[in-house]
């Protein structure tokens, strides 16, 4: 897939945020039909590691990524369970590296990853979303231990989309 520019990502994200709830539910149903394995992965990937609020936010962020990708490229092939498994294995080393890095090393690793990734802007969007603070409570939306898992889940989603889309 051609790189999605950050300006397009912001516009699509804003458009999604303005959808009424019933249209958002229809969109979720549509994505569930078009990408059943990917939406199942979003739902099940962190069930044991995150609080319900974090799981709901992660699912919404995944829908946001799908919306952005489908807004940019109209026809995305269905992502299979095998593709998800392969992409997860491709990310095993990254998961290990992220869990072992110090804060400064973690930041540098992420910056390098975003610079080298074919969808670096979309990956940056995912990173910003999982490290965002709740404006009302001035605290991170994802707890420390959930933040890396949420980012990796979104990266796997992005990698799957990038792998199957010409």
At a glance:
The protein is built from nine helices and two strands, in the order H-H-H-H-H-H-H-H-E-E-H. It is mainly α and 166 residues long.
Features:
166 residues, 73% helix, 2% strand
Descriptive notes:
The protein has a two-stranded antiparallel sheet. It is globular, with a radius of gyration of 15 Å. α7 runs antiparallel to α8. Helices cover 73% and strands 2% of the residues. The chain is built from nine helices and two strands, in the order ααααααααββα. With 166 residues, it is an all-alpha fold.
SSE diagram, text form:
Elements: H1 6-17, H2 21-34, H3 36-44, H4 52-72, H5 81-90, H6 92-100, H7 103-116, H8 120-130, E1 133-134, E2 139-140, H9 144-164
Antiparallel strand pairs: 1-2
Helix pairs in contact: 1-4, 2-3, 4-9, 5-9, 7-8, 8-9
Number of strands: 2
Q: Indicate the mean pLDDT.
A: 90
Shape: globular
Indicate the low-confidence ranges by residue numbers: none
Structural class: mainly alpha
Strand arrangement across the biggest beta sheet? 1-2
Task: Give me the Rg, rounded.
Answer: 15 Å
What share of the residues lie within helices?
over 70%
Strand content: under 5%
Largest beta-sheet details: 2 strands, antiparallel
> What is the multimeric organization of the chains shown?
single chain
- The end-to-end distance, rounded to whole angstroms, is 5 Å
Number of helices: 9
SSE string, helices as H and strands as E: HHHHHHHHEEH
């Amino acid at each position: 897939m051609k790189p999605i520019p950050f300006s397009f990502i912001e516009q699509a994200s804003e458009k999604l945020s303005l959808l009424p709830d019933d249209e958002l539910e229809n969109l979720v149903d549509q994505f569930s039909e078009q990408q059943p394995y990917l939406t199942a992965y979003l739902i099940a990937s962190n069930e044991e590691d995150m609080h319900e609020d974090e799981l709901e936010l992660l699912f919404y962020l995944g829908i946001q990524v799908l919306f952005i990708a489908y807004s940019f490229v109209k026809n995305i092939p269905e992502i299979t369970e095998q593709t998800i498994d392969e992409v997860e294995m491709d990310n095993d080393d990254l998961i290990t590296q992220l869990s072992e890095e110090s804060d400064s090393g973690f930041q540098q690793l992420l910056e390098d990853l975003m610079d080298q990734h074919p969808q670096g802007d979309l990956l940056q969007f995912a990173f910003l979303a999982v490290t965002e603070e709740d404006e009302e409570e001035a605290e991170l939306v994802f707890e420390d231990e959930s933040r890396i898992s949420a980012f990796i889940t979104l990266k796997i989603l992005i990698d799957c989309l990038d792998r199957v889309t010409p």
